[in-house]
Design a protein that fits this description.
Elements: E1 3-12, E2 15-25, E3 30-34, H1 41-48, E4 56-61, E5 64-65, H2 71-74, E6 77-80, H3 92-101, H4 107-120, H5 136-148, E7 154-158, H6 166-181, E8 185-190, H7 193-199, E9 202-207, E10 210-215, H8 217-222, E11 226-234, H9 239-246, E12 251-257, E13 260-266, H10 271-281, E14 286-292, H11 296-304
Parallel strand pairs: 3-8, 3-9, 6-7, 7-8
Antiparallel strand pairs: 1-2, 1-4, 4-5, 9-10, 11-13, 11-14, 12-13
Helix pairs in contact: 3-4, 3-5, 4-5, 5-6
């Protein structure tokens, strides 16, 4: 067990940022904390890192109680926070060398690790650049390089892809998966559903400081009643035709907007086949049609009654 959190409670006055939060992270996982801003993700991370005092609960890292002065434990942790934390007066190389030097004191070993971090994050052409000359995506890569250069066993990343372009985001996500393949255990917080679906082996959905659900993405989707969502391009549909679709077994809802018909079904077999047969029987004219399985947002919506995309993110 790399991280174990039990009944963590953290209050800010009347606000409960962590509400008896419990979860564990196994060695070799990419463990995702998914939730809207204000759900308690960053609070949980700061408590794990002993950057915040908490009201009650226990936290263990590598099987030992986490304490602010346990520097031997912290040597095996890499941190990449949401806000870029580098020195503007230092070049890319000098920044990575400085942060690596906090953990690695041997000059030759540190030089090797810095070069590996530069190569890993794709910053070789920018090693002499100062941070003010870097794009947002390159700054994020520098931030990551500073956090992982010392080859930590546990890497904690708190929304490292905020406000960057898609190409840089993909580069970062690919790098995270490569870090994991090299042996690092990763805790990854985000409010982007597509990111946790892409890289996380297990996911905890958070809301109001609580763990709403924990599991693989497949396990989470099995927790809800919603089945596939069928989207159809239509060329006009009458109320009676829509009612015929609604009357089908396993159909939860039928909505039509801007010539797109959205049909949501509960779990069941052959839903798409039944819809196509009904459309043929009732002469519903259509063009493109496709089916998709539930998303993590559907899980969040059914469990909490809220749309993750509308939670101020």
């Amino acid at each position: 067990m790399v991280v174990k959190v039990e009944n963590l409670v953290k209050r800010y006055g009347d606000i409960v940022a962590a509400d008896h939060l419990s979860f564990s992270v196994e060695e070799g996982e990419v463990f995702g904390l998914l939730g809207p801003n204000g759900s308690g993700k960053t609070t949980a991370i700061n408590c794990i890192l002993s950057l915040l005092k908490y009201d009650s609960g226990t936290i263990e890292i590598f099987g030992r109680p986490a304490r602010p002065d346990d520097y031997d434990i912290k040597r095996d942790i890499g941190i990449v926070m949401q806000n870029v934390a580098v020195y503007k007066e230092l070049t890319v190389y000098e920044n990575i060398d400085y942060f690596c030097g906090l953990y690695i004191h041997g000059k030759n070993e540190r030089k090797r690790l810095v070069e590996e971090a530069i190569e890993f994050t794709g910053l070789a052409d920018f090693r002499r650049f100062y941070p003010r000359k870097l794009s947002g995506g390159l700054l994020r890569r520098l931030n990551i390089a500073c956090g992982i250069a010392h080859k930590p066993k546990l890497v904690i990343m708190d929304e490292p892809t905020v406000a960057i372009d898609p190409q840089s985001r993909n580069k970062i996500l690919e790098g995270i998966l490569e870090l994991n393949r090299q042996g690092a255990t990763i805790i990854y917080t985000t409010h982007y559903m597509e990111e946790v679906e892409q890289i996380c082996s297990r996911i905890m959905i958070m809301d109001r400081g609580r763990a709403i659900a924990i599991g693989t993405k497949e396990e989470l989707k099995q927790m809800i009643s919603l089945g596939e969502k069928i989207t159809v391009e239509t060329f006009g549909i009458t109320h009676s035709q829509a009612d015929a679709l609604r009357a089908l077994p396993n159909i939860v809802s039928v909505e039509c907007k801007d010539r797109m018909l959205v049909i949501k079904s509960s779990k069941g077999r052959n839903n798409l086949e039944a819809v196509l047969e009904c459309m043929k029987t009732h002469n519903i004219q259509y063009g493109r049609i496709y089916s998709e399985l539930p998303t993590l947002n559907d899980v969040f919506l059914e469990i909490t009654g809220k749309d993750l995309r509308d939670q101020g993110v």
